[in-house]
Amino acid sequence: MDRYDVKRLGKILSVQAEIEGMKADNAFCEAYGETPTFKKPDFDEKAELLRLIASAHNDDLCKFT
Fold first, then answer.
1. CA-to-CA distance for 39 and 37, rounded, in angstroms?
2. Whole-prediction pTM value?
């Protein structure tokens, strides 16, 4: 792995952690009979971000925070 692979992996894992947090928040809401905070479009947005990071040119990785 080179430094770009490591950076890309870190960014992907960061987005995946956000998704897991979103899922946990929705589970909490469901457990208390509340409306889920995050809807399908929110998850679709994160999926698109993952696709963009995965396919980004190495020099463009800095655009993703």
1. 7
2. 0.92
